[in-house]
């Protein structure tokens, strides 16, 4: 049996457990992820929504991605930590912030996305496949 991926916000008000392996894990260097993370990129693991159990009440805010589709970011109203994202165009997936994992060492990035928006000071693993935007489907 696969070990659950567990995590949540800093204060524990929001918790998740996820059955299954990530479908995709990436460092995203788009401007939205830079702003949300307060750094040069955001690090994410995306899972099938069917395997996710979520407890606690998150606050949400929507933004429109380059594709024109809405992405909703969930964050803790108490400690402010961004925890997850969902996508209106892809309701079958659930994306978590790698730093929100109880065991962040389990995060294994597979690619760098939106590298066209990277900053020289944000150096990521040069061995990862790198895409100017999102990789093709």
TrEMBL record:
Residues 5-122 form the CENP-V/GFA domain. Gene3D superfamilies: glutathione-dependent formaldehyde- activating enzyme (gfa). Keywords: Lyase, Metal-binding, Zinc. Pfam families: GFA. InterPro entries: CENP-V/GFA, Mss4-like_sf. The keyword Plastid does not apply. It comes from the Bacteria. GO terms for molecular function: carbon-sulfur lyase activity; metal ion binding. Belongs to the Gfa family. PANTHER family: CENP-V_GFA DOMAIN-CONTAINING PROTEIN-RELATED, GFA DOMAIN-CONTAINING PROTEIN. This is Aldehyde-activating protein. It comes from Bradyrhizobium arachidis.
